[in-house]
Amino acid sequence: MRKYFGTDGIRRIANSELTPGLVYKVAKAGAYVLGKHEERAPLILIGKDTRLSGGLIESAMTAGFLSYGANVIHLGVIPTPAVAYLTKKLKASASVVISASHNSYEYNGIKFFSNKGTKIDDSLEEEIEEIMDSGKIDEFSAVGEKIGTDKNKEKYVEEYLDFLEETFAKEINVNLNSDFTVAIDTANGATYKVAEKILKRLGINYKIINNKPDGININKECGSTHIEKISKYVVENKIDLGIAYDGDGDRCLAVDETGNIIDGDKILAIISKYLKSQGKLKNDTVVATVMSNLGLNKYAKENEITLKQTKVGDRYVLEEMLKNGYNLGGEQSGHIIMLDYNPTGDGIFTSLMLITILLKAKEKASNMCKMINIYPQVLINAKVSNDKKMTYKEDKDINDAIIKLEKEFAENGRVLIRPSGTESLIRVMIEGKDEKYITQKAEELAKLIEAKLK
After folding, report:
1. 63 and 170 housed in the same domain
2. The total number of structural domains that make up the chain
3. pLDDT tens digits, one per residue of 101-112
4. Which residues are catalytic?
5. Distance between CA atoms of 74 and 100, rounded to whole angstroms?
6. Domain assignment present for 1
7. What's the rounded mean pLDDT across residues 224-232?
8. Is residue 440 pLDDT above 80, yes or no?
9. Phi/psi at 376 (5° precision)
10. 3-state class of 237 per DSSP?
């Protein structure tokens, strides 16, 4: 098991667990691993969200990069996908996003991106950890003229905005309805400026909430983890579509004009049908994770689309897409990857694609969502000992209970048991037609797991 990196980079409480000393070592080792095959001094971009600790983490990270001899460009507060896009555009050696995504402000995190704008492989994260703990870290110190330099280039975000405008302006301008209005919730996070700017550029009527970050209100009762806020706002103000981003902007969820949620599975259905109708869905395939709703499976079969499913995590979705040449994938949580445009989940891009499709179809979001029937899905977390969570199948009572449930829901439902990659939890997920019944069954199994694996 890796010591520092989890399923999405390093994420810990800032200045307590994620200390400046640890950040310095991660940066120095990361610069070595990601830049060792280049003849030039590595060029590394740094972006961040709006957390209070962002400056602290960035300072320590910059020191580590410069000490190795890497040159740094500071992009300021900027969405994660914009950093990924600019990494390729500027031909940087690598980039780092300082963010804890949807977590509350006291957390912060570090996500490395390769020179291709993709999250780095598990093997590279493991190599970084090995260097950090090898005692060799001090050997990688530049001296004299080889010490790195850093520059502030926050205006580079305009190039990302140009990319978005160039991609969507033509279709939106042709189909724009002056009565159409979208509401956006930026979670007081990294999208708080960029999302508004692109809507203005495209001439779309909009309302915006939770766009006044103060360092500690990121994700606080807002954004994609509190979708009820934008839902209520949309209904009260009679708005056509609501969009909620997460703290770093790499995903979004939406709500229709009635306030009902449009999750990642529905978004994948809407976009895949649109792309297929244009002959642009490569291999007529969508990539999702094992957490995707059974309804997405049935939608895919009904529309002659192949659904490939991976482990949970957008990095595994991307790996499958790159391996087999697919161009659309994502997660139920709203990470949507459209590989023809950007090699990472992009909340703003996804929202603009939804808007484009709605305007072109000239129909309400609620009607469009009828193409997919979402089954009730219940997720219960069982608290267990961390050293026992990977061995749950070895317990006969637990295993027998799981097998019994799997047989019961084999025809019209699904049972998925998944140990958490970051917490002392086993997640029990059941899908079925009767929400009350599947909730009862999930709670019973979770209690059994807790009792047996304390």
Report:
1. no
2. 3
3. 999 999 999 999
4. 101
5. 18
6. no
7. 97
8. yes
9. -55, 135
10. coil
